[in-house]
């Protein structure tokens, strides 16, 4: 595992941080340049209610991370302290921000947990349980929004109708992938904990992986033991984990709702406002964007998300051309802070953890 862990350092070089930032900001910059002349900035008047809802958006970000931290604490059976859980969440989010969405921070999270004190088997088990809970949220929520909203309502907007309509197929492909992974994880966690352990052993029987076979087999044994422990957990354990997952993902999506209401108060004093139906539709379209990110190769979905946002959310931005500015504000609140925080804490964490392992 130590050799695999050393490889992780390569994923946190400065170019891994710069690439998604440049890519995302470049797309937004081009869209902003294209639409700048359409924006009538005289329509905006800053109000205390605008500030209040903007602060509310950051409050949602707090609850998003609080849900993640609480879930990590529960899944680790309290073996990780609150401080360790906070650190892991930020490292994990940073990993998600600098890797393609289909890979995400999940591919790196086992290393984070292992270096913070869990054995490799339990680290893998916690990561898989986390992945299962995340995908379960999508697996349940996506069919619900398809029931509540028609395909036309979700995928056809006032602009670029053909482009958005074609995204339906991508969304369904992403959902099928997520649902398949959810079923596989449910089988591994609740029916046959030995399945994934045997899979690990089988993979490391491949000739060019033989030199890591001994460590992999021990990991498989630890994983099976840890997974049997998860399988034996009661209703209270899983209820807490599901509640934390619901808090984190729902809060994540509510950020944009708060930002859009803040914008409404800046434009017309909130006279038009955003109705309950529209709030749910904004939530639904965000969930679709997140599923679409799964099939996008760019780090953190950067570039793609900003472009799709300008079409998906155009119906809720009453000022011509300003949807591009909203896309930038939204990503500045929800995405770029993790690049900044991660780039600050990750080098020190890596030096501390890997230097310690080399000395021992």
Summarize the structure.
Helices cover 76% and strands 0% of the residues. The protein has 360 residues and is an all-alpha fold. The chain has one domain (2-359).
Number of domains: 1
Mean pLDDT: 77
Largest sheet: none
Q: What is the 3D form?
A: globular
Distance between the termini: 15 Å
The low-confidence runs, each spanning 5 or more residues with pLDDT under 50, are: none
Rg to the nearest angstrom?
Answer: 22 Å
| Secondary-structure element pattern, one letter each | HHHHHHHHHHHHHHH
Q: Could you tell me the strand content as a percent range?
A: under 5%
Helix share bin: over 70%
SSE-based structural type: mainly alpha
Number of helices: 15
Oligomer: single chain
Please describe what this structure looks like.
The protein starts with a helix and ends with a helix. The protein is globular, with a radius of gyration of 22 Å. With 360 residues, it is mainly α. The protein has one domain (2-359). Helix content is 76%, strand content 0%. It is built from 15 helices and no strands. The mean pLDDT is 77. α11 runs antiparallel to α14.
Helices and strands, with pairings:
Blueprint: H1 2-7, H2 14-35, H3 48-75, H4 82-98, H5 106-115, H6 120-148, H7 151-155, H8 161-191, H9 194-203, H10 213-231, H11 235-268, H12 276-293, H13 304-312, H14 323-334, H15 336-359
Key attributes of the depicted protein:
360 residues; mainly alpha; single chain; globular
